[in-house]
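quick one before i forget lol
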Amino acid sequence: MSGAFIVSARRTAVAPRGGAFRAMEAHDLAAPVLRACLVDAGREPHEVEHVILGNALSGGGNVARLAALAAGLPASVPALTLDTQCCSGLDAIQLAVRMVESGAAELVLAGGVESFSRSPLRAVRPRTKGEAPVFYDRPPFTPFPARDPDMIEVLARAARGMSRAEQAAFAIASHAKALAARGRLEAEIVPVAGLAFDSFTRELTERLCARAPVLHRDGETELDAAGVAVEADAAAVVLVASRQWVERRLHVGRPLAEVFYVRSFAGAPEDPPGTVDHALRETAFETALVDVHNTDSEARLDWAQIPVVELMEASAGQASRNCAWAGLDPARINRGGGALARGHPIGASGAILAVRLFHEMAGEPPETLGLAAIAAAGGLASVLMLQRS
């Protein structure tokens, strides 16, 4: 146990790139979510001691500071922005937890925000006067070109051995769960720009999936648009508090969850999905709930026994691979649908998993454990486990 609690958690809806949030800067997306987290917990802006947001695409500056000021937090509240690509939002929450654990703060707003729609055009500066700027879509994720594949290639490798029909079935199930949960999801979504639901979610069918354009072929493996999460805009934030703060100030009966475990992992830079496999293995051993007299070195937590799991769906193949490795039933993960049904707002995606986990666990019995896990380009992964209080 960390002694850190999540006492409120909110997000915007997720909108595909060029959708409802196309004119909104990243900090304008995050500001109302920061405010909503405070309102939910019954706290005032001046009580916050730090704001930490993950972001990958804004091109510099300090999005967290802009968001904090736009949200009406006092100018005296520090803010920092971090970038670990897809893990950014979950890593921001981890940093907030560490601050609380260390005694550096008692109340921290943390999460992630991303606007694909407003992300700046990026170019490599010319070295000589005769050269022209070279525009690029993404920076390198490793200094070794041979070990720095495009993410679509990574996802295609993760889908090896999986037919298009099997990938389609996974995506169809994700959309179906999201549609069924739409009313329940309203409790966590802060309406912004008139959007109060995840607008990409639809009644996906086998016929629609069969018509989806093929994005990549890798030998016999085909990756199509239905089986890959779309680029999107969103913000998600949680309020992290210390045990002492909770005991002093939180009203009895308010939903909260204790941070049971949180950690970042790294592995082969060319295989982010494999890093999640590694992260789940290490987490299972480190959090094994075994008798102290049990000397069985192979004792580990059984993921099949965890009732609430939020697993990133960058693609159907990646999510299916991670489920198979950990022994997770795909039908049981992502109760409210996953990123295949919402979209993938890079820096916010990990924080969205945390918000989803918090709200799904609110209906579980005390002491129930829940898991959120995500991978990132460059061979990174992050894991969060919460326990219902």
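fyi The domain at 4-119+230-388 is CATH 3.40.47.10 (Peroxisomal Thiolase; Chain A, domain 1).
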